[in-house]
C-alpha cells in the first residue's frame, strides 16, 4: 500500500495515505486475528477451519470501508482510494467463496500486491510474482490448502488489479 500511495500522490504524502491503507487492509485485520487467537477462539493465525473465517472478513470489510471513508473525507489521491475499494471487492469475493469452499487468502493478497505494484509502477514488478508462487507453494506444503485453493486465491488477487485498472 505504501508503494501504491506513493504512485498515486507522486510525492511523500502518498506514503501517509499508503500507511493508512496498510493499517486498514492489513494491520488491523492481523491484530484482530491475533487478539482472537489469544482469547482461544482459533488455534492459530491461519484459521484453517473456513467456517470460522466469516468474522475476519467482516472486520476486514469494516476496516477497509472505514479507511476508505477517511480517504474520501481527506481528499486522498484517486489511485490509493481505488486500490482500497478494489481490495474491499476482493474481500467480498473471498467471503462469498469461503461460504462454500476454502480459498487461500494469503495467495489472493500476495497476487494482488504484485499485480497492483506492476500496474502503478512498472511491469517489471511482475517478476516478483515468483514470491506469489512461493506463497502458494508454502500454503500447500504446510497442508493448509490444496493447489486449487491457492490457484483460485491467486486468480482472485490478480482480478483485483483489473478492478483497479478500470477504477
Task: Give an account of the 3D structure.
The chain is mainly alpha-helical and 167 residues long. The chain is built from seven helices and no strands. Helix 3 runs antiparallel to helix 4 (78-98). It is globular and about 40 Å long. The two termini are 16 Å apart.
Main sheet attributes: strand count, strand direction, barrel closure:
none
Number of helices: 7
Q: What's the total number of strands? A: 0
| Series of secondary-structure elements, N-terminal to C-terminal | HHHHHHH
C-alpha-based Rg, rounded: 16 Å
What's the rounded overall pLDDT mean? 94
Shape: globular
Class computed from helices, strands and strand pairing: mainly alpha
The share of residues in helices is over 70%
Concise structural overview:
74% of the residues lie in helices and 0% in strands.
How would you describe this structure in keywords?
mainly alpha; single chain; 74% helix; 0% strand; 167 residues
List the helices and strands and how they pair.
Blueprint: H1 2-9, H2 13-38, H3 54-73, H4 78-98, H5 105-120, H6 129-141, H7 147-165
Helix pairs in contact: 1-2, 1-4, 2-3, 3-4, 4-5, 4-7, 5-6, 5-7, 6-7
Amino acid at each position: 500500500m505504501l508503494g501504491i500511495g506513493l504512485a498515486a500522490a507522486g510525492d511523500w504524502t502518498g506514503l501517509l495515505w499508503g500507511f493508512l491503507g496498510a493499517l486498514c487492509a492489513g494491520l488491523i485485520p492481523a491484530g484482530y486475528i491475533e487478539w482472537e487467537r489469544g482469547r482461544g477462539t482459533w488455534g492459530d493465525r491461519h484459521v484453517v477451519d473456513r467456517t470460522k473465517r466469516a468474522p475476519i472478513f467482516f472486520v476486514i470489510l469494516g476496516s477497509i470501508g472505514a479507511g476508505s471513508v477517511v480517504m474520501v473525507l481527506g481528499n486522498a489521491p484517486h489511485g490509493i482510494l481505488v486500490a482500497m475499494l478494489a481490495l474491499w471487492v476482493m474481500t467480498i469475493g473471498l467471503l462469498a467463496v469461503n461460504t462454500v469452499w476454502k480459498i487461500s487468502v494469503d495467495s489472493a493478497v500476495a497476487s494482488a500486491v504484485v499485480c497492483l505494484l506492476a500496474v502503478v509502477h512498472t511491469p517489471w514488478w511482475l517478476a516478483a510474482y515468483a514470491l506469489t508462487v512461493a506463497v502458494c507453494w508454502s500454503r500447500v506444503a504446510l497442508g493448509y490448502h490444496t493447489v486449487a485453493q491457492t490457484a483460485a486465491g491467486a486468480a482472485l488477487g490478480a482480478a483485483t488489479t483489473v478492478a483497479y485498472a478500470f477504477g
